Amino acid sequence: MAFGPPLVIGEEFAHLEGVESIHIYGSWASRYDGTTGPTPYDVGVLVIGTPNRDAVYDAARRSQERLGREVNVTQRTTEQWESASDDFSQQLRASPMVDVPYPSRDAEKEQGQ
Question: For domain 4-100, which architecture applies?
Answer without folding.
Answer: 2-Layer Sandwich (3.30)
